[in-house]
Amino acid sequence: MSQVIQHDEHYDPEGSKIGMWLFIFSELLLFGGLFIIYSVYRYLNHDAFHMAAGELNLTVGALNTLILLVSSMTIAMSTTALQKKQKGTAILLLEITFILAIIFLINKYFEWGVKFDHGIFPGSEYMKEEMSQGEVLFFGLYFVMTGLHALHIVAGLVIMGFALARVHKGTVHAGRPTLLENAGLYWHLVDLIWIFLFPLFYLIT
Amino acid sequence: MQASSKTPNDVSYLEYQGKHKGLWKWILSTDHKRIGLLYLYSMMTLFLVGVTLGLAMKFELIAPGKTIMEAKDYNAVFTVHGVIMIFMIVIPGLPAVFGNFMLPIMIGAKDVAFPKLNLLSWWVYIAGAILVISSVLFGDGSPDTGWTFYAPYSFKTGSNMLPAIFGAFVLGFSSILTGLNFIVTIHRMRAPGMTWTKMPLFPWTLYGTAWIQLLATPVVGITLVLVALERIFGIGVFDPALGGDPILYQHLFWIYSHPAVYVMILPAMGAISEIIPTFSQKHIFGYKAIVASTLAIAFVGYFVWGHHMFTSGMSGTAQYTFSILTFLVAIPSAIKVFNWISTMYKGSINLQTPFYWAAGFIFVFMIGGLSGLVVGALATNVYLHDTAFVVAHFHFIVFGGVGFSFFGAIHYWFPKMFGRMYDATWANIGWLIFTTGFLALYSPMFYLGMQGMPRRYYDYLEEFHAANILSTLGSWVMTLGLIIILINLFRSAKSGPIAPKDPWKGKTLEWTVPSPPPLENFDQIPEYHEKDGPYEYQ
Fold first, then answer.
1. Is B15 part of a structural domain of the chain?
2. Which residues of chain B have a CB within 8 Å of the CB of A19?
3. Model confidence over B265-316: pLDDT tens digits?
4. Which chain B residues are within 8 Å of A189, Cβ to Cβ?
5. How far is CA A52 from CA A58, A129, B100, B230, B392, in A?
6. Is B139 part of a structural domain of the chain?
7. A-chain residue closest to B214, CA distance
8. Using the beta-carbon criterion (under 8 Å), do A12 and B113 form an inter-chain contact?
9. Closest residue by Cα to residue A67 from A105, A114, A109
10. What is the pLDDT of residues A13-50, one digit of tens each?
């Protein structure tokens, strides 16, 4: 006899967006701790950081920057498309974003792979014997920060996957686009962090 | 027998039959009140584990030399005691239990902004707790670094650090999600007409706390991850052998962990600011000063972390700056104490158990706060650093502050949460014994510290013996008080007399709904008008 009563679902798009922004603040502070460590060690080991940065592949870094910038654009376009009730376009643009994110990860995989082949990874014999302490710190931070960023790309993929499925199903639509908008916000954060990582590791020499 | 025509608000939240049965209807519930109780029960369990470890430590210290455990075991015991008490009890304590239960009701909402996220926070909390406990049960030796996980020992020691560190990280994540949820709830879901200056003070302190949780926790999160990575891969950032700087670890750790002290104490102050006007039947004195001092504490609290490191190696300028800032934090705290006392002045004071706890809170909080100034001043800090004095200081603040407020809050809101009254006589006896034990347990440590007894040793010189015996006896008396309090509450929750809607004649919104509240709290969302306010007593 007992009957399950569905009480009104509380829907507050403004609230959800504030929530996402707050989450982004906390993400920024997560990376903020790393940026502090980076700046302290850069100050203390200026020359070593200069030398170590030369080891990184600028082309791959630049390519990945371009990929993320374009993907940020496509996800923004996808949101606009959804608001204009062009569901097909929205899905297509979201899929492009998804694929770009995967390409980013593939690039990263090969970039790290080359470093590993050269014996550059935390705790390696090569790093202990051939590198100065400053260079060890540089690569320690490089792997941690780009690794953590890559994890955020994966998290972004999961969120986009949800958004994609919901847009397909029609539960995320022009009247209720919050999930897609939040996925976009999160993706811009991932992009933004990379925009700082790229110069810090690849460009400033 | 449930009638099919029942709406969710005909039955109380305790009786409401949702989609799930048995235990599931609790652990899968997204009702903020049930989640509050889930936190209450899980914390009580963990708290008893922490208390047992504390008792073991005090028993070890009843006499010099080995009493019941070796030095290594003592290190493990104070580490696990600290990790459990700090990360699982006092940091989430009041926000997770009373914040979850009372915040939506006090601001006139049906639930928090993200009920599912709220449930997730509890599950994340449980996952973190299990991780930490597993570090004791499995692997080669319990963590032995102290709850601060200081580098480089935390990645050099052979003990089972990884689960403890990841556990602390996961618990931080739960804390962030709760903070996020509360900020959005407070911004978006206050009842119509409840402007910021009409919001009760407990939600206000939760708001300040939530911002600290959100902005400070990630810093310690990443720091703990780095320690774990240091252990697994040897990345070098905190390892002096690889060029890293362990002092940097301390900075990053305290950038979070000092604000975390305000995560603990602010909601405690908030609960006290609810109890005192209710039992004085008087408008809270200086509402705006209390709000401003709450925000001031939350803000200035970010800039005082260096006072944990006066002896670690820091420039003179940094030391002066951190010391002055530390003294500044004392001002808003003192403002609150004056406001509470002024609220009682000429009030019609109703001497009930929550009021006793609130009075006890003010007493121990002042001792804790003033001793904080002693260790916050540079000259005395060098003398007292890492002595029993510091242990006494932070137990007065953290356990005295948060603990007294927690017990005050649970007696205050008990009728609302369980719909029954507790036995006041036993509750008062429990309070008296607990307070006596508390003072006997921690006061001697001030003396011991000033005599030079260091903290974190299982052994001490014969000259410290007498005061240590008093302290150990105190721990037994306090535990007896605790047992009386808990048994009384458990019995009363089952068979106490039925509680009316508003047993204390309180004026905040939670006293306008039935005890215990129905699923959606309010049949009709309340409205605040021009003259309404949270503390309008005649």
1. no
2. 113-114, 117, 180-181, 184
3. 999 999 999 999 999 999 999 999 999 999 999 999 999 999 999 999 899 9
4. none
5. 12, 15, 50, 20, 49
6. yes
7. A26
8. yes
9. A105
10. 899 999 999 999 999 999 999 999 999 999 999 999 99
| Residue B268, domain CATH | 1.20.210.10
Instruction: Answer yes or no: is the ipTM higher than 0.95.
Output: no
Give B393-445 pLDDT, tens digit per residue. 999 999 999 999 999 999 999 999 999 999 999 999 999 999 999 999 999 99
Residue ranges per structural domain of chain A = 34-203
Q: State how far residue A6 is from chain B, nearest Cα, in angstroms.
A: 9
The first and second tokens of residue B506, run together, are 């309180």
B481 within some domain = yes
Q: Is residue B387 helix, strand or coil?
A: strand
Chain A residue with CA closest to B239: the answer is A137
Give the closest of B17, B235, B242 to A144, CB-based. B235
Three-state SS for B9-34 is HHCECCCCCCCCCCCHHHHCCCCHHH
> Does residue B14 sit within a domain?
no
Distance CA B531, CA B538 (A): 13
Q: Do A133 and B236 touch (CB under 8 A)?
A: yes
From the candidate CATH numbers 1.20.1330.10, 1.20.120.80, 3.30.930.10, 3.40.50.880, the one assigned to the domain spanning A34-203: 1.20.120.80
Count of structural domains within chain B: 1
Q: Do B187 and A33 touch (CB under 8 A)?
A: no
Chain B contact for A6 (CB, 8 A cutoff): no
